[in-house]
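Hey, resending since the last one bounced:
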Amino acid sequence: MAMPRLLRHLFAGHGARRFFPAASMQRIQQTITASENIHRGQIVFAVENALSPGALFAKVDAAQRARDVFGLLRVWDTTHNSGVLIYLLLADRRVEIVADRAIHAVVGNTAWEFICGEMQQRFALGEFEQGVIVGIEAISSLLAKYFPLGADEKNPNELSDRPIIL
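The structure tokens again:
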């Protein structure tokens, strides 16, 4: 394991609260809620300051941790298999998107990687809240295209819209 990565994780502190104060988390939640009124998908945003020492020694990376969180938060457990997790690991400065099988089958890795890149550009500018909102809006557009709501249909809120700090 690389010493710089270990030190970043050990001294990560509480960056999630600094980069995402309560007002930002509220706006992110409102964006998720609004987006789920135009499609049959479910979007979850989770941010984690750092990995545990055990995970670091096991060489867990952001992508692997995102897949774990996807399962832990049961993002896969939606009626239309259209749940999407946006996972941000602050210590590694990495954002990952994990999508359930139905939406991933029609969208594919390239779209998720593009959205992650757009988000990371905002993060590099210190625009954390806006970076997450850009990601939510882009994912919402894809969900609206492939999983639109019918005229009289409502999207039952299967997963909480509230952002999660792990």
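The helical segments are 3-10, 15-19, 22-35, 53-57, 62-72, 101-107, 109-124, 128-146.

Sorry for the duplicate.
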